[in-house]
Write a structure and sequence with these properties.
The chain has 5 helices and 13 strands. With 204 residues, the chain is α/β, with parallel strands linked by helices.
Length: 204
């Protein structure tokens, strides 16, 4: 009996180790895609964040997690909006571009799985060295001092199951009641990430 239990425990430990290895491989592949997407958005959306540019705007070098929620209906049949700067899975799945759904229903579980992304993710050093960047910690310190800061912040991209499509939220902040946000949809075409469409999601 003891041998059987030991055997089961060993199988469980081994399978967990295998899963961790697979997650590491996926993470490294996605990290490459994430950094390519950040650079593609900066260039294609003409963000003035490069160090060499005069009067460049700061870019937060830590991407924040985009939380994806399943809507819960109240007794009156209405669903409350998701927390600010987060999104419902139904909004992603129902997004249509040129009359066609951008993400398919097959992507839904994989999109929800990305809620396990880290709370924040630092972009790669090579990119940081070319940009006028700031950390979340420094931003919070400057806000406490009452300083007015202009900066962009971006979410960690969420991907379709085949990793050929991605969704990102981009925010521009120029004060406590100043700024705007965008939803950006990207597609990998000829191994390069391209912005397919974008629209404004909020303005202050």
């Amino acid at each position: 009996m003891k041998k059987n239990i030991l055997y089961i425990v060993m199988i469980f430990v081994f399978s967990n180790c295998q899963n961790k290895k697979e997650e590491t491989n996926i993470a490294s592949e996605e990290t490459k895609n994430i950094n390519e997407i950040v650079e593609a958005i900066i260039i294609q959306d003409s963000l003035n964040v490069f160090l060499k540019s005069e009067d460049s705007t700061m870019f937060c070098n830590e991407l924040r997690r985009l939380n994806i929620y399943i809507p819960e209906k109240r007794n009156d049949g209405l669903a409350l909006p998701p927390p600010p700067q987060d999104i419902y899975i139904t909004e992603l799945i129902n997004s249509k571009i040129k009359g066609e759904s951008f993400f398919s229903s097959k992507d839904s579980l994989y999109l929800l799985k990305q809620n396990s992304n880290p709370e924040k993710l630092k972009i790669e050093k090579d990119l940081i060295n070319r940009l006028n960047t700031i950390t979340i910690e420094k931003l919070e310190t400057q806000y406490k001092k009452g300083q007015r800061i202009r900066f962009y912040e971006m979410t960690i991209p969420v991907f379709s199951l085949d990793k050929q499509k991605a969704y990102v939220q981009l925010g521009y902040h120029c004060g406590r009641l100043c700024g705007n946000g965008k939803a950006i949809y990207l597609k990998k075409i000829n191994r390069k990430w391209k912005i397919i469409t974008k629209w404004e999601t909020w303005i202050s």
